[in-house]
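Note to self: user wants both folds in one dump. Writing first protein now.
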Amino acid sequence: MKKKNIVSKIYTALLLLFLYLPIGVLIFYSFNDGKTTVWKGFTLKWYAELLNDSAIMGSLYNTLIIAFLASVAATVLGTAAAIGISNFKGAKRAIIQNASNIPIINPEIVTGVSLMLMFTLLGVAFSFEMGFWTVLLAHISFCTPYVILSVMPRIRQMDKNVYEAALDLGCNQWQAFTKVVIHEIMPGIFSGFLLSFTYSLDDFVITYFTRGSKFQTLPIQIYTMTHKRISPKINALSALLFVTIMVIMIAINVRNRKAAKTKA
């Protein structure tokens, strides 16, 4: 048993090293005074230059606002869709649920090109250009299936009688829905929100086809910078994003553990 534990620990350590070593190297060189991989001393100038770069900070703002709005809208739509799908039975439910999973399986380039064609046709008909709103609608469209995928298992696990029990105990339909049903499926809703936010934050292909010529997000901005020599400011930006996500994930795990101990 001890040998098995040692082997499993070594395997886990090697796996984590394989996953996080490139990120560690990136963070390490974000403090390098030189512009190459040759270490020339410790510095924070790339972080200072990053904060003073209006193009990168503007792209970061666009990325965050798109990710937040798209994830909120997708969470509302996806939760409503998941509840609606759960009310169907038999073959109808299977068909609708499989149809909602197609955008997840569908290659991003197909989704991006199809949305671009649709927005182009609508732009000709209604005289508008692609930009913030087209990117937002595109992100909502591909994030919603992930919310459905996250919420559906929670609905299946929920006791179907709790809603009727709430009605019997004096709640009206809206109170029973918000205080009982939503409360029961909240972990799935929260997971769907996080998935939507992450995928929207990271998306490049669909955004590239639906952004038009003036709107920039961070992945697009980084892509345009690769045509030249990549600035170490990108290392600093990536390090900040990684640390932020790690802090959020640690906070969520600590919260979940406290909640589990409280229930126990």
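First done. Writing the second protein, which came from a different request thread.
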Amino acid sequence: MLLTITYTGENASDLGYLLFKNPNRPQTFELNHGKAYVFYPEISAERTTAALLLDINPIDLARGKEGATSGGLFEYVNDRPYVSSSFMSTAISRVYGTAMTGRADAHQALSDSPLELSATITMMPCRGEQGKLNSVFEPLGYDVKYETFVSDENFPQWGESKYVNLTISGKVRLRDLLKHIYVLIPVFDRHKHYWVGADEVDKLLRIGEDWLPNHPERTYITGRYLNRRKSLVSIAFERLTETDTTSSDILSETEEKEAVKNLNTQRLNSVIATLKNCGAKKIIDLGCGEGRLIKQLVKDRQFTQITGVDVSHVALKRANERLKLERASESMLERVNLFQGSLTYKDARFNGFDAACVIEVIEHLDIPRLVAFERMLFEFAKPPVVVLTTPNREYNTNYANLHEDDVRHSDHRFEWTRAEFQNWANKTADKFGYKVKFSDIGEASEIHGAPTQMGVFTLCV
């Protein structure tokens, strides 16, 4: 991952004094997750560029050193060592910490002056959010340019890459440029390598005190920087409104989160009602996550055998804790079973159930893997009933914090319109001998439908 900062102007080589890094001597810094290198690819009196290059050790990440992101395959196959993610923000603080304070000793006047600066962030995560780059950086006084790519030139149908090369340019103080980048890289990085706790609120408000309270995208910036943790976001908003009483955006954010919470409840209730109506007793929850559906199923004695499957051992650990299986009775342990497995491979353990639930899971699969998923579920496991839910992309326009082409979760590979979902479901049902009925979950819009769409597949006999 690479960050370059260029100063164009009189005595441009003085950039080295402001950064406290000698242009004539490359430097290396040890980080907990790898190394950072500072060097100057160009030095002249008119134009000087400083480069910060990070070399992240993927083996260290997988083995649980600082920066590890536990979660099944993601531990070993991920983009963390190669893109400008939250690791870059950590390196900026470590390497350019003095420059961020604005202290420049004999060159203090230069540090206090706006300079013609530009910064290029290479391979910055930005899935479907290019428009946000403009709305976030432009109010801070930058011209914004970014270079996009296709995911794979050999498979253009996969669409655009979720990474961009971002360049911002403007007449700003160096300390402000560094602070802006430090905060805003984690805003666009949805897989932060560090725990977001209460100290991150203090850090955000301290570093953003000069610009965040009046920023038109402060709601988006604050929510994303704090990983949308409701308690932390509320604390941050409360402190922000001490200096700015405009709260309409905050209200809409709160209302939207409450709507999402209610939707989750409605979704689970709809699935359980469907299972009860079809008389199913033995249930398998494919992609069970942290066990929210299973926790509700165990309350109903109709369901005599409940199995949860997920690819992530971390999710299964949390499901185990949610269900309190460590302290459960023998009868509970006989009734509930959790195991790790993939939804794209044939597995004999998936067989023999009355109904399979696939709740908000299919959109996490890569499109090329859908065929394998279809065969695993409808051809090999072949349960009499399949209950499947997925987001309705058309409804996203009703969410204040989602823009055109945004998806609801960073790990969603796609989201279908109602027509796209029904087309896929009908073709799949016909192919494997099922019939399918559709219904909506959540408060429906006359134009855009409901937020969640559900298909119930029934095996033809």
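Dump finished. Worth passing along: Residues 46 and 153 are 38 Å apart (CA to CA).
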